Amino acid sequence: LWHYSFYHYWRSEGCPHSQHLPLMGDGPIPVIIIMSAYLLFVTRLGPWIMSRRPALELRGPMLTYNTVMVAINAYFFFKFISLSQYGRVFANFQFPSKYDNSERTHALILTTYLYSVSKFIDLLDTVFFVLRKRNRQVTGLHLYHHTIVPLLAWMTMKIMPTVPAFHIFGILNSLVHTIMYSYYALK
User: Fold this and answer.
1) How far, in Å, CA of 17 to CA of 83, rounded?
2) Which of 54, 101, 108, 121 is a good FRET partner for 89, with 20 to 30 A between their CA atoms?
């Protein structure tokens, strides 16, 4: 049961177009390890390390990070809009075939993959909170969001990276993150 749940199911049901991509070849164990390490660091290890040190001043790195994240999220917002044919695909209620080999499908899979990877990069904002000793900003909702979104993005990418419902989420999430990171960059 363990082998099936954490390896065989994902291998047999996964999208054949994404098997070769990093983190996509097998089951969720590498992603679970990454997310567990993240949670361990931001809730226990990081605050413990920083308890003996002064808060770090990270204006330069944070400005760079926020500016890069604005560009990344704006890119995904416009790319998902374009690949969804400006919303027309959302009116088609057919479930896409994971064996579709069209150019649009490959572009959508690559965009979905890069978007999924960007959700792991988003974890750095919590690391910045910890290093700056802004632990009150590390709320349950923040941790829930930053844990669940990368896991769901990975699962979607693994099983059905072309499903329109995920791309609606990507459009909305990218728009919100573009605004949010713009605010943080200007702050």
Assistant:
1) 17
2) 121
Task: Tell me what pLDDT residue 85 has.
Answer: 82
Angle formed by the axes of helices 164-186 and 140-159, nearest 10°: 140
> What is the crossing angle of helices 140-159 and 124-131, to 10°?
160
Q: Which of 131, 147, 132, 113 is nearest to 39 (CA)?
A: 147
pLDDT tens per residue, range 101-117: 888 889 999 999 999 99
Residues 6+ positions from 40 with CB-CB distance below 8 Å:
none
Q: Which residue has the tokens 């992603």?
A: 31
DSSP state for residue 106 in the 8-state scheme: H
Q: How many CB atoms lie within 10 A of CB 24?
A: 21
Catalytic residue, candidates 17, 20, 142, 145: 145
Annotation marks residue 145 as catalytic: yes
Q: What's the confidence (pLDDT) of residue 102?
A: 86
Q: Residue 167 carries which DSSP code?
A: H
